[in-house]
Amino acid sequence: MDAVRFELIKTCSQTGARLGQVHTPHGTFDTPAFMPVGTQATVKGMSPEELVSVGAEIILNNTYHLYMRPGEDIVKSAGGLHKFMNWERPILTDSGGFQVFSLSALRDISEDGVVFRSHIDGSKHLFTPEKSIDIQNSLGADIIMAFDECIPLPSDYDYVRSSVERTSRWAQRCKEHHKNIEEQSLFGIVQGGIFKDLRSLSVRQLLEIDFPGYAIGGLSVGETAGEMYEILESTAPLLPADKPRYLMGVGSPDYLIEGAMRGIDMFDCVLPTRIGRNGTVFTAKGRIIIRDAAYARDLSPLDPECGCYACKNYTRAYIRHLFKAGEILGMRLATLHNLYFLLDLMKKIRQAIINDRLADFKTEFFNKYGYL
């Protein structure tokens, strides 16, 4: 019996978007879902209570970074991530595979795995599929990911094909090594760059291994939006309808809506927290940079249509003042607002699916936000 189970509740007749629920050992979350990223066992600037208040039902932690510090042994001795960080809801951990891409200057790839040079002290560490699973078993997240290679863009066809086949072999090794099946579900990751036939090959190979969920990786790494949508349109329908589909590393409002319309159930991204810390916030009418002088005397909320704590209690002028004065509260309020905005957007997407009008919702949102 898989630790994680997907329940498909409704398909939007207008777009094919899916409404569902994912049931995990630490509770159920609604889909389509956005997962705030807590790279080092914390969503930057936010307490667990604040994450609950903005509507977060599941968060993501990073295997590579937690291995580097504090070490998975410390997390395990604390009772796993949920107890270590005081988060009672579901958690997903990535596999460390993205660091194959993001730390490309610090690694060497072989069939056995990847040798990383620590971004902290330069020390060498070998990540194999088995080691990634051992670490994730120790961390104790509800959903864990197979170790994969996220290839750079551009990459030539022959390299992408060999990478896909290696990722599939690694996925098989991950499944064979995964010990904690009753408490953690292991998802496979589809690769293949921007080549539709290689994406199809990756799906076929992963389906033969059989996972309780599937991610689409290697997108949002420099390709155009059109290229991403084409890959999603050709790849998502190949995945089982009764299992969750996760698009990795995507979190802008347009990508969330477009991804949901193409049958994606789960998303994650550092975008809302990263831009929030730098003074950029989402609003119903598009992004604003709150540090700009235009807001020095603006006594309206960040977004007059938003119901978050920051918008109910503080003005643009005050939050701008906090940023200009270097006060931490400014970054916290902007981060909280951005997370609330995206999580509220997911609620609206789910309601639009219920009402069979997600395409209409997209048009309304894009017109107002400034995408059209």
Structural class from helices and strands?
alpha/beta
Uncertain regions spanning at least 5 consecutive residues: none
Oligomer: single chain
Overall 3D form: globular
State Rg. 20 Å
Count of helical segments? 15
Largest sheet: 8 strands, parallel
How much strand? 15-25%
- Number of beta-strand segments: 16
Order of neighbouring strands in the sheet with most strands:
4-14-13-12-11-10-6-5
Average pLDDT, all residues? 96
How helix-rich are the residues, as a percent range?
40-55%
Instruction: Report how far the terminal alpha carbons are from each other.
Output: 46 Å
Write the layout of secondary structure elements.
Layout: E1 5-11, E2 18-24, E3 27-31, E4 33-36, H1 48-53, E5 59-61, H2 63-68, H3 72-77, H4 81-84, E6 91-93, H5 97-102, E7 107-109, E8 114-117, E9 124-127, H6 129-139, E10 143-145, H7 157-177, E11 185-190, H8 196-209, E12 214-216, H9 225-235, E13 245-247, H10 253-261, E14 266-269, H11 271-277, E15 280-281, E16 288-289, H12 309-313, H13 316-324, H14 328-354, H15 358-369
Parallel strand pairs: 4-14, 5-6, 6-10, 10-11, 11-12, 12-13, 13-14
Antiparallel strand pairs: 1-2, 2-3, 7-8, 8-9, 15-16
